[in-house]
Amino acid sequence: MTTDTPPETLVTQEMEDAKGNWESETVSPPVSESDIRKWAIATYWPEKPPEIYWNEDYAKTTRFGGLIAPQDFNPFAWPIERQIPAGRATPQGAGVGTRGMNGGQTDTYGVPMKPGDVITTRARLKDWNERQTRLGLTLFQEREVEWRNQNDEVVKTRLSIGIRY
Fold first, then answer.
1. How far apart (Å, rounded) are the C-alpha atoms in residues 55 and 18?
2. Fold type of domain 13-29+97-165
3. Contact yes or no for 53/36 (Cβ under 8 A)
4. Percent of the chain with pLDDT strictly greater than 90
5. What is the distance between the alpha carbons of residues 18 and 9, in angstroms, rounded to a whole number?
6. Backbone φ, ψ for residue 72 (5° rounding)
């Protein structure tokens, strides 16, 4: 007979080793005018999107001097090959420390993306807080994701909280 005793901590050695270290980078294909236009149409549907996203003549008269992408544009949205995140448990096989939920996120925007930009992203485990909650032992992980363009300018920074219990 086995007894499932709750773990003393959900913090792993891998987490300790990874804390604060940037993971490998991912590079997007060049942002295209067509991608920006389609994203804006989808985002603003059924309304007409702002001209800064699709009308080059108008966009040239703005402070940006040309088309820009909506802030929520994602140049990584259509990968050829998809990666399945490691360590994801199915609801049927989830055990203590593998169940999780999104605790929210905050995006901070820098320079806008423009046609031709190549975006590089990197991520790191920034910090965590572990405590007892009504769900039992719960781990709140803070993850930071940074996007930069080919000029090394910050496009976006995302801080997100992952909750494991």
1. 44
2. Thiol Ester Dehydrase; Chain A (3.10.129)
3. yes
4. 70
5. 17
6. -85, 5
Q: How far apart are CA 162 and CA 157, in angstroms?
A: 16
Q: Which residues pair with 107 in a beta bridge?
A: 158
* CATH code 3.10.129.10 region(s) in the chain: 13-29+97-165
Q: Record the tokens describing residue 70, joined without a space.
A: 């909506």
Amino acid at 100: G
Under 8 Å CB-to-CB from 13, ≥6 apart: which residues?
A: none
* Range 146-150, long-range pairs (CB < 8 A, 24+ positions): 146/121, 146/122, 147/119, 147/120, 147/121, 148/119, 148/120, 148/121, 149/111, 149/113, 149/117, 149/118, 149/119, 149/120, 150/117, 150/118, 150/120
pLDDT in tens, 145-156: 999 999 999 999
* Mean pLDDT of all residues belonging to the chain: 90
Whose tokens are 């007894």? That residue is: 3
